[in-house]
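Example record for the data management plan.
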Amino acid sequence: MTVITREQLKPLTMGHLGLVGAFIQESGIIEKIDSRLPKISNNAGHFTHGQVVDLMILNGLGYTTRPLYMSNTFFEARDVEAMLGIEYQKAWFNDDVIGCTMDALYEYGLTPLFSELALGIMDSLGRKIGSVNIAGRTHELFIDL
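Corresponding structural encoding:
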């Protein structure tokens, strides 16, 4: 049996991001994005576009004020593999990977993607959607509960 010393332990935190990661996995957001934005080349890193978007969501909800290109340092103390169920290495998540995904998002269109994801998630949760109002730069979804 191998003995692990206290110095070898590296605690990782999840906090509220564990719940967010669980919802991301449960709702299939990664797969939904990947079906709409297939990755054409492996030159842009080890992540799919859906995985990069989900990493950006976690970073954005992590109460960090760091620039997006420094996101990899945000995840040093978090268990990304447990939160999203994906293999993660710090060096893989960089500004080139983020930029490639943001280009793909722009080409697809953010409003259509948001609408498709929101409606698909609400449908999978069994929620009846009474009306949808997408106005200007804000996204509002009115749901009859």
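Summary line stored alongside the record: The longest strand covers residues 131-135.
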